[in-house]
Every structure is written in C-alpha cells, then in structure tokens.
Design a protein that fits this description.
The chain is of the alpha+beta class and 129 residues long. It is built from 2 helices and 6 strands; from the N terminus they run βββαβαββ. α1 packs parallel to α2. The two termini are 15 Å apart.
C-alpha cells in the first residue's frame, strides 16, 4: 500500500505540520476543515451555518483533489465549539449528504483553530480504477 499526500489550492492551506488529506490505498483521510475562505484565509461570516457550509465546501475540494467525493465518505467527525449549535450545523450538513449519509460523531471542543465554530474531518472509501 502506498501513501499519497493530497494538496489543492481550492481549499485552505494547512495551518500546521499536516496534510489536507492522505490517500492510503482505497481510503482518503481528510484533515479537519473549518469555515475558512480559501481566497482570503479568513473565516466566513454568518455564524455556524455559514462556517459549516464553507467547511464542507473545503472538504469537498480536498476530496475531489484526491479523486474522491462526498458521496464516498464513510465517516465524519464534527467538532463544535458549542453543542447548542448542533441543530444549525446539522441542517446544513444534511444538504451535503442528502441520502445514505456517512457514520458520524459530533463532539463539543473547548476551542477550534482560528476561533472557528465548527470543524469537520472525513474518511472516504474511494477504490482506484
């Protein structure tokens, strides 16, 4: 099995010593994405709903760079700064996974990078053809 580092300019650059994603065999492990606008490097405005939307767009871009898609995601983890934001995050999340959603965990974190309200990581199963 080989390990391939994934990078795309369509999503925010890593803000530390990690990769946006790693493809290992038929799996893609995507690092957590927050609601950063890749063009400006700043968090989008509009609260947790807009940050969730942007985080999922960023995640989608990273997966596409790895040759995968949101439809191939088998597991996500959602980190929320405040669990009271769960319903707002969940409403947006559902629009990105309208059918056969992946398994998911959602937890409250004491703090997230850059003061984000939400961070989402994913694992996708994407067999190479």
């Amino acid at each position: 099995m080989s390990k391939h580092i994934i990078h795309t300019d369509a999503a925010p650059a890593a803000i530390g010593p990690y990769s946006q994603a790693v493809r290992a065999g038929d799996f893609v492990f995507a690092a957590g994405q927050i609601g950063l606008d890749p063009a400006t490097g700043r968090l989008v405005e509009g609260g947790v709903a807009e940050q969730t939307r942007q985080a999922l767009r960023n995640l989608q871009a990273v997966l596409e760079a790895a040759g995968a898609s949101l439809q191939q995601v088998v597991k996500t983890t959602v980190f929320l700064q405040d669990m009271n934001d769960f319903a707002a995050m969940n409403a947006v999340y559902a629009t990105f996974f309208p059918s056969e959603p992946p398994a998911r965990a959602a937890v409250q974190a004491a703090a997230l990078p850059k003061g984000a309200l939400v961070e989402i990581e994913a694992i996708a199963y994407s067999p190479r053809t």
